[in-house]
Write a structure and sequence with these properties.
Elements (H helix, E strand, L loop, with lengths): L7 E3 L2 E3 L7 E4 L23 H17 L3 E4 L17 E3 L2 E3 L11 H11 L3 E3 L11 E4 L2 E6 L5 H11 L3 E5 L12 E3 L5 E3 L6 H10 L4 E2 L2 H4 L7 E2 L3 E5 L3 H9 L3 E5 L2 H4 L10 E2 L8
Parallel strand pairs: 3-4, 6-7, 9-10, 12-13, 15-16
Antiparallel strand pairs: 1-2, 3-17, 5-6, 8-9, 11-12, 14-15
Length: 287
């Protein structure tokens, strides 16, 4: 059953609505490690506890199941330590999936693995034509696709997104290398509300976000630096890093139920709850 996730407005401010059940794809971090540095979070010299990463990931997975969501898993492959970050595996809407083309060769072999899984699962898979890293830089909101660029996805990929999904695409320029994907700087809370870090975007993109989402939740740099915005929302429940206490409090003031998860081990590679979670949006029923 899918619930209406429409938010309400109280006192001029958007409030959370009911949750929407979701279908997620995840990848167990069996082979997680930091063997190279392709973003500012990664330090191959720092110690990594893979067993701890698996336990933290399992807590995230159980949380989704406890909330009534469906979680499917793709088999992790040896030699692909970042495959745990399933959100980068594709962009999926209305039964269609746009495959990815990673910027960095270290992750290139993840792309065909995710495309093959989606094809077997019955999605209409479209081949990538330009560098794009899936939902890391493509987030749906209010009938639009918010698309990040500046560090990973190319402008040309945004045009391809629009052709594949038939949704207006809003390009947002990222300017801080710590927030290299859109999903590290912005979280879609429900159909009409987002949370974001203004400093992560260019002046023009900040103006666009103010126009599109005048009632947005603005995050602090301190919360963004623990990847607090790399969160997953079903319209009511927001799952975010437990360290993002300020953002959690701000969301609760808006009526969202926040659930803090410790993914500190995976953060050593620049990932949080959203990075670990690809939303499988199936074709909507004809009304």
């Amino acid at each position: 059953m899918t619930l209406d996730a429409t938010a309400t407005t109280t006192g001029g401010r958007t409030q959370a609505g009911p949750p929407r059940t979701r279908r997620y794809l995840m990848c167990r971090p069996t082979y997680f490690a930091v063997e190279y540095a392709i973003n500012p979070w990664m330090d191959p010299a720092a110690p990594i506890d893979t067993a701890l990463a698996v336990r933290q990931w399992e807590t995230l997975r159980r949380t989704y199941l406890d909330l009534g969501h469906t979680v499917e898993e793709i088999e992790p492959l040896p030699g692909l330590p970042d495959m745990v970050f399933a959100a980068n595996g594709a962009t999926v809407h209305d039964g269609r999936a746009l495959a990815v083309q990673f910027r960095d060769p270290e992750r290139a072999d993840e792309a065909p693995a995710y495309a093959a899984w989606l094809d077997r699962a019955g999605f209409e898979v479209h081949e990538a034509k330009h560098v794009n890293e899936g939902e890391g830089d493509a987030l749906p909101a209010n009938g639009l696709l918010l698309a990040g660029t500046g560090f990973r996805a190319s402008h040309a990929a945004h045009a391809h997104l629009q052709e594949v999904f038939g949704r207006p695409v809003i390009t947002l320029q990222l300017v801080d290398p710590r927030f290299y994907h859109l999903d590290t700087a912005l979280c879609v809370l429900d159909d009409t509300t987002v949370a974001y870090l203004p400093e992560a975007f260019s002046a023009g993109s900040r103006a666009v976000l103010r126009r599109l989402f005048p009632d947005a939740v603005l995050a602090s740099l301190a919360d963004a630096e623990v990847l607090g915005l790399n969160a997953v929302s079903d319209g009511r429940h927001v799952i975010l890093p437990v360290q993002a206490t300020g953002l959690s409090a701000a969301l609760r003031e808006r009526g969202y139920d926040t659930i803090g998860i410790d993914l500190s081990e995976l953060r050593k590679a620049g990932g949080g709850p959203k990075c670990c979670t690809l939303v499988l949006r199936e074709r909507e029923a004809t009304k």
